Amino acid sequence: xxxxxxxxxxxxxxxxxxxxxxxxxxxxxxxxxxxxxxxxxxxxxxxxxxxxxxxxxxxxxxxxxxxxxxxxxxxxxxxxxxxxxxxxxxxxxxxxxxxxxxxxxxxxxxxxxxxxxxxxxxxxxxxxxxxxxxxxxxxxxxxxxxxxxxxxxxxxxxxxxxxxxxxxxxxxxxxxxxxxxxxxxxxxxxxxxxxxxxxxxxxxxxxxxxxxxxxxxxxxxxxxxxxxxxxxxxxxxxxxxxxxxxxxxxxxxxxxxxxxxxxxxxxxxxxxxxxxxxxxxxxxxxxxxxxxxxxxxxxxxxxxxxxxxxxxxxxxxxxxxxxxxxxxxxxxxxxxxxxxxxxxxxxxxxxxxxxxxxxxxxxxxxxxxxxxxxxxxxxxxxxxxxxxxxxxxxxxxxxxxxxxxxxxxxxxxxxxxxxxxxxxxxxxxxxxxxxxxxxxxxxxxxxxxxxxxxxxxxxxxxxxxxxxxxxxxxxxxxxxxxxxxxxxxxxxxxxxxxxxxxxxxxxxxxxxxxxxxxxxxxxxxxxxxxxxxxxxxxxxxxxxxxxxxxxxxxxxxxxxxxxxxxxxxxxxxxxxxxxxxxxxxxxxxxxxxxxxxxxxxxxxxxxxxxxxxxxxxxxxxxxxxxxxxxxxxxxxxxxxxxxxxxxxxxxxxxxxxxxxxxxxxxxxxxxxxxxxxxxxxxxxxxxxxxxxxxxxxxxxxxxxxxxxxxxxxxxxxxxxxxxxxx
Length: 726
What we know:
The chain is an alpha/beta fold and 726 residues long. 37% of the residues lie in helices and 20% in strands.
C-alpha cells in the first residue's frame, strides 16, 4: 500500500511525504508532519492508493465494534495550559487531537502566567495556533514570593470547579510539575474527572519533584518520556497498564526543525551581525527552596557572560518566587541596555528551537537545556541544583556550586562552540501518535477509582502491551566490499529486520544510500516496537573511532578515505553514532553475544577474502568479485590449486595463532569468517606441532555468530547507551 500525506489549509493541498508499507502492516502516523514553518498548524488529510485500511488495525476494529453497539461518542478532552513552557509540550498533542475530530472533542483552558503582560501575554501564541480558548482564568496572585504561589493555587482551586462543571470533560491532560498544574489535578480528581499526566516519574532536584509526584498520585494515566521515569512510576505503585512510555511530545516538532531557514530568526532576535554558533542563549529561573542562593548564582552568571563578551539572548525568568529579585539584578547590571545582550520576555517555541539549535552554548537552569537542547548536540552549562536529578546527554556540563564567577567563566570557555552527538534520551519524534493511540484505548466504562500496585516491584517488570513496552535496539550498518547492510538489532542480539543493497562505487551514491537505508529502518523500527538508541557502523580499513572517521579503506571499497560518517548520520537521524573497523566489531560481537561472553580475554581472527581460481562447474557473473566462497567451491569441486591455497593459508594462520598464544596467552581463540571452519583443523594441527606445552590447552573455536560485523556494530551502541540509561 502507498499512502500519500497531504496538508490541507484554507483548501490548499500541500504534498508532505510518501510512506511505503506492505499489505497487512500497520501505518503509524508520522510525527514529522508537526514540523511546519508556520504558527498555525494545518489540518492533515490522508489520501490512499490501494485497497488496504490506513489506520491502526486494532483501533479500526474497536471503532466498528463501538458503532455496532451504539457507543460512538467522541472522547471529550480538556487540555489546560499554564505557561509558555508547558504549552510547548502540550501543543503537539493538541494539534494531534484537533486533527482527528471523528475521535475527539478538544476544550482548551488557559490560566497562570499566560495571561500576564510582564510574562509576554503568551496566550496569544495559542490563538495564533488557531485553537479556540474555551476559558481564560486569571489565577496568579502577584508578589512573586512563596506566599503568592500558595495564594495562586488557592485562587485556581476556587475558580476551576465552575469551569469543569460547564465543560464536563471525559479526561483532563495536565503537564509537568508547576504549582498551577497541582491545582488543576486536585480539582479534576475531586470532581471525578480522569487525569492524564504528562512527564511524570522524572527527577529534577527542587520543590518541583514534590509537586510532580503529588500529581502522579492524583492522575489516572501517565505519559512518561524515559525508561527511568517509567520505572520510577512503577516503583511509586502506579499501575503499569496505565503507563505509556511515549517520549517528550516537543521532540515530535524539534527533531524536524534544525534544517529550516534559521538565519533570519537569529538576526531578528540577536542582530544582523551575529553568526550561527557565535552567540549564547541564557535562561535561568529562581530555585524556590533556596531563593537567596539562586539570586547570587544569577548575579555570577551575568558577570561571567559580560566578561565572556559574546552576543547573548537573555530570557526573563518564570513567575516562581524570587523572579522579581532576578529581574532587579538584570536591571541593576544594565542588561537590557548592554550592547552584547538582548533581554526578552518570550520567544515563540518554533523560533526558540532554531535559536538553541544553532547557538554556541546555552546556559542556565531551565529543563529545556537538559531535555530538548540535547537533540541538537548544542553545548549546555547547567547551573545549580534545579535540574540536578535529570537524565542528560554528554552535551551538558554541570556547575553545581558556583561560588565565584570564575567557575562559570571557565565553563563557558570549555563549552562554547563545541558540537556534541545528538541525544534522544527524551524522545524519538513519535510521541504524539503513541499518545493518541493511548487515549483511544481508554475505556470510560472502567471504574474511576485508581488501583495502586503495592507489591514489591521486580527488577524487570514488563507486560505484552505494544504501546507500553518497546524493545531497546540499535541500528547496525556493515559496509562490505560488495554489499551494504543495515539491521535493527535487539538487546539480546536478535536481528529484528535486515536490509541489503549493493554497495555503490562512488562516495556520493554510497553515503546517500546509507542515509536512505537508515532513515527507512528507523521508521520501520517504530512499527516493530523497537526503540533505537543509536547507530553503529562496521567498515573495512583504518578508522578513528573517537571522531567517527574512516581514515583509509580497503581496496574493495572505493572513494572511502578520510570520510566523516558520524556527522551526516547524527544530523539526519538525531542519534549518537559509533564507527569502528570490521575486525574490532567482530571481536565486540563475540564479547557481547558469542563465545567470548564472560571471558576476561580472548582473541578473534577474521578469515578474509582470497584470490582463487575458477574451475569447470563454477560460474561467476562477469561483474561479481571473486570471493572466499568461490575458493571453497573450487576446492570442493576438486581444484588442486584451490585445495593447496586453503592448506597454505591455514598453516600460515596456524603459525600466527601460535605466535599469539606465546605472546599474549589468551583464554580463547575464535576464528570468524566464511573460511574459519575450513581452517580450524589445520590451525589445531599446527598448534600441536609448534606451540609450547603451556599453551596447548588453549581452545581454538569457530565463531557461531551469523553476522558478527552487524552484531559488533550494534554492541557499540547497546553497551554505551544502556550503561548511561541505567
